[in-house]
Specification:
The chain is an alpha/beta fold. It has one domain: 3-Layer(aba) Sandwich (Rossmann fold). Helix content is 26%, strand content 29%. The protein has six helices and 13 strands. Helix 2 crosses helix 5 and helix 3 packs across helix 4. The longest helix has 16 residues. The protein is globular.
Amino acid sequence: MKILVCISNVPDTTTKIKFVNDNKDFDATGVQWIINPWDELALTRALEIKEANATAIEKITVINVGLTAAEATIRKALAIGADNGIRINADPKDSYFVAFQLAEVIKKENFDIILCGIESCDYNGASVGGMLAELLDYTSVSAVSHLNLENNQIILKREIDGGQELISVQTPFIGIVQKGIAKDARIPNMRGIMMAKSKPLQVVEAVDSDNYTDFVGFSYPKPKAACKKIEPENVKELINLLHNEAKVL
């Protein structure tokens, strides 16, 4: 059984976002890039499953749509424990483009379990996993908070309104994972970092695809209003501000 984990190369969540060219392009100067946190948790769970089922899991592959700079992030995933990596050589423009490029590579491989984070922390589109399943005509399960291999059966737990759902699925399938899939993301150790240098990283050229979106420009959110502190006994002033300024009453 082979597991594929789709990873995004995203700015560190503490990065101060800047735009250039009249706010039409993201300024990557000085940005520290990381594995998208949701994808990192998916990779962690894949590794846990492999360790618990060494004879059943053949290998874990990570795949990314990105330019050369993304290879450092892929190497980090290899250092964490993935067996090999694939980089699709293209600028990840939008969700459809990324899903299409991933699908074209996956069609040529035989992956049993494909994991995607529920969203990336840069665009928060939450759409690549669903699009990928549609393009491949694979079973997909969203909001996966637990994944396990029990008696050669894949058991998933997903969050639903008011509770949880426990289901089993046949391979191949795409699991779109969220909070709970793993407790903490793994951190590469020195041995893993050294081994990652010799692990295979395949570069695949992107294929032509339809273009459905264009980025016209970016804008910053409006700055938050200054915080006003009201003395606990001054209830009338609090009500006045909530009614006339905040207009929530």
